[in-house]
């Protein structure tokens, strides 16, 4: 289906970028955006009241994503990053069709990197049940490269473990080992971390897979694609915004204090506040 035309009137260089995820996972994408395009202002929304998305239906994830986009647009954002693989798999197409500002997801950038780095053409993808079930990584990678085999494995328990902050923990390691054992046996050389929560347990995953397997974190490529997109539209912010409460703003649908502590442990930037809002009102 056809996308909507961009409304140039709405696209201002000094406007913020909207970023969202079901919870804390999208912070791995925010961290990368800050690293690559530090002049940009960011409004983040984590749907902490309704996490996880990965076990929900396409309709539900699409409805949640549409509400969040309406919320982010109250800040006149110039673009939106769907920093959630599940929402990218289920809702991105619908969001793009309804949007007159650019919206990008994390799946295509991750697929591109994996297609580039694999040497033996055997790529593993770990993600939520929804992302694996949608086969979206396989679809994108096969468009980019022939003779590849993609092995998907849903790892649903990793999201709640990460949300609980159990990043370096024997329980997380044991669960990850069980999920990954079948991927170890089939000689993949590349593993896509197809859920934005997973880079937070990257060292555990790397230890289990061993040094021969390249771990792909789609956050890096997503931030690069975002930078290129903004540069192409002449929308990169040319001035460094003053440090302060409105340069990076964080909103959640529940448990703002807990989120704030977590965010500060990931983004070493001194995040000042996180506010809870009623997302059902959007
Ligand atoms: N971080 C999300 C993803 O990238 C969603 C995890 C979840 O809510 O299940 O898929």
Structure description:
With 282 residues, the chain is an alpha/beta fold. It has helices at residues 27-36, 58-73, 85-97, 107-117, 129-134, 136-144, 158-163, 170-184, 202-209, 218-232, 256-266, and strands at 17-21, 42-46, 79-82, 103-104, 122-127, 149-154, 190-193, 214-216, 248-252, 274-276. The strands form 2 sheets. A 6-stranded parallel β-sheet has the order 4-3-1-2-9-10, with helices on both faces. Strands 6-5-7-8 form a 4-stranded parallel β-sheet, with helices on both faces. Helix 3 (85-97) links the parallel strand 3 (79-82) and strand 4 (103-104). The longest helix is centred in the first third of the chain and has 16 residues, at 58-73. The chain is globular, with a radius of gyration of 18 Å. The chain binds D-glutamic acid.
Secondary structure elements and pairings:
Layout: E1 17-21, H1 27-36, E2 42-46, H2 58-73, E3 79-82, H3 85-97, E4 103-104, H4 107-117, E5 122-127, H5 129-134, H6 136-144, E6 149-154, H7 158-163, H8 170-184, E7 190-193, H9 202-209, E8 214-216, H10 218-232, E9 248-252, H11 256-266, E10 274-276
Helix pairs in contact: 1-10, 2-3, 4-6, 4-10, 8-9
Q: With helices defined by DSSP (H or I, 4 residues minimum), what is the helix count? A: 11
How would a crystallographer describe the biggest sheet?
A: 6 strands, parallel
**Bulk shape:** globular
Helix content: 40-55%
Strand order of the largest sheet: 4-3-1-2-9-10
Number of strands: 10
Q: State which percent range the strand residues make up.
A: 15-25%
* Cofactors, ions and other ligands in the entry: D-glutamic acid
Q: What's the rounded overall pLDDT mean?
A: 95
Radius of gyration based on Cα positions: 18 Å
Question: From the helix content, strand content and strand pairing, which structural class follows?
Answer: alpha/beta
Query: How far apart lie the N and C ends?
Result: 25 Å
Low-confidence stretches: none
Order of SSEs: EHEHEHEHEHHEHHEHEHEHE
């Amino acid at each position: 289906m056809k996308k909507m035309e961009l409304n140039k009137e709405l696209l201002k260089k000094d406007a913020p970028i909207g970023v969202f995820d079901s919870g804390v996972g999208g912070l791995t994408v925010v961290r990368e955006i800050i690293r690559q395009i530090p002049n940009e202002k960011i409004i983040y929304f984590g749907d902490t009241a309704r996490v996880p998305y990965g076990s929900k239906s396409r309709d539900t994830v699409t409805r949640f994503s549409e509400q969040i986009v309406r919320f982010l647009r109250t800040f006149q954002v110039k673009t939106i990053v769907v920093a959630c693989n599940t929402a990218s798999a289920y809702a991105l197409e619908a969001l793009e069709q309804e949007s007159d500002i650019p919206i990008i997801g994390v799946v295509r950038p991750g697929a591109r990197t994996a297609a580039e780095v694999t040497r033996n053409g055997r790529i593993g993808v770990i993600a939520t049940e929804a992302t694996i079930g949608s086969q979206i990584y396989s679809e994108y990678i096969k468009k980019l490269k022939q003779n590849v085999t993609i092995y998907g494995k849903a790892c649903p328990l990793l999201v709640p473990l990460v949300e609980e902050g159990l990043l370096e923990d024997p329980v997380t390691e044991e669960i990850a080992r069980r999920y990954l054992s079948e991927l170890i046996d089939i000689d993949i050389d590349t593993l896509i971390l197809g859920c934005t929560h997973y880079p937070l347990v990257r060292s555990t995953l790397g230890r289990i897979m061993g040094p021969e397997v390249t771990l792909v974190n789609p956050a890096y490529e997503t931030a690069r694609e975002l930078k290129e997109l903004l540069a192409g539209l002449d929308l990169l912010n040319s001035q460094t915004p003053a440090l302060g409460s409105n340069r990076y703003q964080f909103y959640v649908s529940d448990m703002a204090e807990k989120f704030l502590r977590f965010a500060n442990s990931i983004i070493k930037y001194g995040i000042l506040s996180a506010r809870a809002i009623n997302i059902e009102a959007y």
